[in-house]
Amino acid sequence: MPFSKLFSRTARRRYSADSLYLALVALAREPRFYTELGVPDTVDGRFEMLSLFVYLALRRLRREGEASARFSQELFDTMFADMDQSLRELGAGDLGVAPRIKRMAEGFYGRIAAYDKALEEGAGALVTALSRNLYGTVKPDEAVLARMADIVRQLDGLFAGLPAEALYAGEPHVPLTPVLDGQPAAEGAKI
Q: A Pfam family for this UniProt protein (predicted)?
C-alpha cells in the first residue's frame, strides 16, 4: 500500500493547507515589504501582510467553486490556529485569546470584502483599502501606497494564473523579487 493511502483524505487536505499556509507565511515575511514599502514591522503589520497573501490565495481558490470550499476552510482554520498559538506564545492568557481571535477573524473577513471591492473598482480604491488596512497604524506617502497597490494588482494576477493544483499541493509559484523590483514576473518561477 502506498504511504499516501495511510492518511485519510481529510488529513491529506489538512497537510496541504498547512503547506500552503507556510508558503504564504514565507511570502509575507519578505523583508522588503517592511524595509522598502513601509509595512509596519509589528505584530499587527505582519498579520496584515499575511492576511493579504492568504486573501489572494483564497481569491484564487474561489474560482474553483465548491471544489475548493473545504480546502479554503482548512487554510482559514490553519491561519487562525497559528494566530491562536502565536498570541499564547506572546503571553496572552487563555481568557484573552478567544476574543482577540474573534476580532482578528472578523477583521480578516472585512479585509476580504474591502480588497475584493477595491480590486474590482480600480487603483484609487485599492490605495484607500491598503491605507486603511495594511498601513492602518502608519501614514505612508502616496508614492509608497501607489507602488504597493501596483504590487498587489500584480500579485493578484500571478495568483489568478496559478493552477489550483499548485495551491492544493502547497506550492504557490509566486516570484516576489521581480514584482518588488518593478519588473514583470516570469511565469512559473519559484518563491
A: Ubiq_cyt_C_chap
Domain coordinates in residue numbering, the chain: 7-180
* Per-residue pLDDT band at 6 (split at 50, 70, 90): very low
Is the pLDDT score of 142 beyond 80?
yes
Three cell numbers, residue 57? 490565495
8 A C-beta contact, residue 104 and residue 47: yes
Rounded Cα gap, residues 141 and 144, in angstroms:
6
Closest CA to 9 of 70, 76, 62: 70
- The dihedral sign for the CA sequence 178, 111, 165, 76: positive
- pTM for the model: 0.86
Question: In 3D, which of 176, 156, 179, 171 has the Cα closest to residue 55?
Answer: 156
Q: Which of 48, 53, 82 is nearest to 174 (CA)?
A: 53
Residue 27 zone, left/alpha/beta (φ > 0; ψ -120 to 50; rest): alpha
Model pLDDT, residue 165? 94
CB-based contacts of 172, cutoff 8 Å, min separation 6: 20, 23, 24, 27, 57, 159, 162, 166, 191
**What letter represents residue 128's amino acid?**
T
Which grid coordinates belong to 141?
A: 506617502
